[in-house]
Design brief:
Helix content is 44%, strand content 14%. It has 6 helices and 7 strands; from the N terminus they run βαββαααββαββα. The protein has helices spanning 27-32, 50-59, 71-92, 99-110, 133-154, 185-203; strands at residues 5-8, 35-38, 42-45, 117-121, 125-129, 161-163, 172-174. The strands form 3 sheets. The chain has a 3-stranded mixed sheet with strand order 1-3-2, with no helix packed on it. β6 (161-163) and β7 (172-174) form a beta hairpin. It starts with a strand and ends with a helix.
């Protein structure tokens, strides 16, 4: 059973840490880090509502400012995000890529229609149909994010992928040097404080 307190808000950026190293270069890395574990058993979901998901896409030039996503679209974004995270974890751990994650990314890569689709029904017979505007925008965003994830995972920067070493953080980053495993100054300070506390505790026993 989940014991963390989940925070989902239409203005989540106020509580979110700054982007992890590499997130400005790869939107897919920024995308993977929209699920945040915070100290105190809290969990910040940056795609937790249609409004929050819309804001995230708009701020990254993946949707126009006048778009309004629905819950189904937000769920689709979160689902792909979780599969991208699974692929990042498998790459960092030198493990086989999960079949479901590969399938989800490949589906996203090919889900954006390039033309009106052909449909048939008894009333209209054969006819061409464009997807609703919001659906087309989400399909396009998913395809862009999936392509970016594929580029990251198969390119030279994949060797620099790492998971933040500061508990309870779950963010991914690109190491800026061999020893960098913290996604932010906040996480680095917390990790150093934890180590110092552990040393003091050990010395007093």
């Amino acid at each position: 059973m989940r014991t963390v307190k989940e925070i989902a808000t239409s203005e989540p950026a106020r509580s979110a840490p700054p982007p992890a190293p590499g997130a400005e270069q790869y939107r897919a890395l920024d995308f993977a880090n929209t699920a945040l574990a915070l100290p105190g058993g809290q969990y910040l979901e940056l795609l937790g509502s249609p409004e929050a998901a819309t804001q995230w896409l708009v701020e990254r030039d993946l949707a126009p400012t006048d778009i309004k996503l629905d819950e189904v679209s937000a769920v689709r974004l979160r689902a792909l995000r979780d599969q991208v995270r699974a692929l990042l974890a498998s790459r960092i751990g030198a493990l086989p890529a999960p079949d479901g994650a590969l399938r989800a990314v490949n589906d996203a890569l090919t889900c954006a229609p390039t033309a009106a689709l052909l449909r048939w029904d008894p009333a209209q017979g054969l006819h061409r149909v464009q997807a609703p505007p919001a659906d087309r925008i989400v399909d396009h965003a998913l395809a862009v994010l999936a392509a970016d994830a594929a580029d990251l995972l198969t390119g030279p920067d994949a060797e620099r992928l790492a998971a933040c070493d500061s508990v309870p953080c779950q963010r991914y980053l690109l190491r800026t040097h061999a020893r960098r495993h913290w996604c932010s100054v906040r996480c680095g300070d917390r990790a150093r404080a934890a180590r110092a506390y552990a040393r003091r505790t050990q010395a007093s026993t």
